[in-house]
Amino acid sequence: MSYNISIRLDNRRVKDNGKYPIKLRVYYNKIEKWYSLDTYLTEKEFETIWVNSDNKNLRGANNQTRLKLQTIESRAYKEAEQLTVFDFNKFEKKLFRKSSDKNNVQYHFNLVINKYIKNDKIGTAESYKYTLNSLADFSDTKKNCPIDKLTFESINVDWLNAYEKFMVSKGKTYTTISIYTRTLRAVFNNAIRSNDISKDIYPFGLKRDNNYKIPNTKIVKKALSSVELKKLFNAEVSNPNEAKVKAFWFFSYACNGMNLKDIALLKYSDIKGDKFEYYRAKTFDKSTEKKTITIYLTDFTREVIKEYGNNDKSNYVFDILNIKDDSLTQYKKIKNFTRYINDHIKRIAKANDLPEDLSSYWARHSFATNSIRKGASMEFISEALNHSDLNVTKNYFAGFEDETKKEFAKKIMDF
Fold it and tell me: Which family is annotated (predicted)?
């Protein structure tokens, strides 16, 4: 069913001065909505200005009013036509924004940020904010263009190359540059899908096609060796905080490299006998097939739960979050908990001659590496890490240190 758009006089309510509000009426699929245009006319004025639209004798304020209404109606039709399938919410957002918003980078970033906040994806929203702040720093500093004036059309290959050099000059790694430019690319694609900008101005692609190639960085997966794991496990701690942090680090390791966020979100209701099941938060919304991860409890992991678990069995297992926390509070608490773990594990590492950049993320990589060292198959590792397919696991292993690969190569001949 097609939509119908028209300018109407809303005679349901008259103002004290005898004028009625003029509204934009939109009808689609047996639903009609009336939108205020902040314009008021008497019935006679509306007849003269709008109904008799062929009236060529309009002058002054009357002519300006008709031009205003014509512009609104024309824009309403244009925005509706650009929707693949008519949707009132999308139509309203497009119609009542500033005409310059469709080509405005900040506007489209904020659309994505607000969407993720609405869907309780606070971490993802924060990553888009970091990118926007970085772009603002460059645009304002080097291009003398405030971020609220930055347009998609101005971001071409030269602009992106200059941004990359700017980031390097500020000591940023190519990994950070890659993350930020990928985020910008995602916003570009959103604007194109919304028909707000033309794909002809899309600057990303292959260098040989004279496009901007996002740096392809290799993230080295850092893991402790068997000797280092034993050394960390037996390390003396100087206070209860270090004891707690070490326990949680090895809890993550023993639970297939379980992410700290997933540990924080673990509920007593997830525990069933000698195991617990959970969905990995990082990949839950990205995958159509929701896979539960099963972790079997050991004497060690049971002891950690006993030592640091909540007394309230209706709450989360660990006293990191509260069941009443909203998504923003959860995000802040998990971020603080991660910082707490990383700060103290680095102190333990330094005191015991272990890699000083040791962090919570090493537990996941250490689990994968040491599972391979002990002869586990790629299929086992892939399932344990909840990877989407075996290729992801192979790429994961490709990032491990050469010594691990040598050990694996030697073991292959141990029949």
Answer: Belongs to the 'phage' integrase family.
Contacts by residues 405-408 (CB-CB < 8 Å, ≥ 24 positions apart) = 407/373, 408/372, 408/373
Q: Which of 213, 110, 111 is nearest to 160 (CA)?
A: 213
pTM here is 0.74
Q: Per residue, what are the HEC states of the chain?
A: CCCEEEEEECCCCCCCCCCEEEEEEEEECCEEEEEEEEEEECHHHHHHHHHCCCCCCCCHHHHHHHHHHHHHHHHHHHHHHCCCCCCHHHHHHHHCCCHHHHHEHHHHHHHHHHHHHHCCCHHHHHHHHHHHHHHHHHHHHHCCCCHHHCEHHHCCHHHHHHHHHHHHHCCCCHHHHHHHHHHHHHHHHHHHHCCCCCHHHCCECCHHHCCECCCCCCCCCCCCCHHHHHHHHCCCCCCHHHHHHHHHHHHHHHCCCCCHHHHHCCEHHHEECCEEEECCHHHHCCCCCCCCEEEECCHHHHHHHHHHECCCCCCECECCCCCCCCHHHHHHHHHHHHHHHHHHHHHHHHHCCCCCCCCCHHHHHHHHHHHHHCCCCHHHHHHHCCCCCHHHHHHHHHCCCHHHHHHHHHHCCCC
pLDDT number for residue 389 = 64
Please determine, for residue 382, whether its predicted confidence score (pLDDT) is greater than 90.
no
Count of positions (residues) in the chain = 415
> What class, spelled out in words, does domain 226-411 have in CATH?
mainly alpha
Query: How many other C-beta atoms lie within 10 A of the C-beta of residue 292?
Result: 11
pLDDT tens string 244-291: 999 999 999 999 889 999 999 999 999 999 999 988 877 655 555 567
Please choose, from the candidates 22, 21, 29, 27, the residue with its C-alpha nearest in 3D space to the C-alpha of residue 5. 27
* Residues 220, 198: Cα–Cα separation, whole Å: 37
Under 8 Å CB-to-CB from 218, ≥6 apart: which residues? 399
Is the pLDDT higher at 13 or at 168? 168
Contact between residue 41 and residue 124 where contact means Cβ atoms under 8 Å apart = no
The whole-chain average pLDDT of the chain stands at 88
Q: Report the alpha-carbon angle 214-219-225, nearest 5.
A: 175
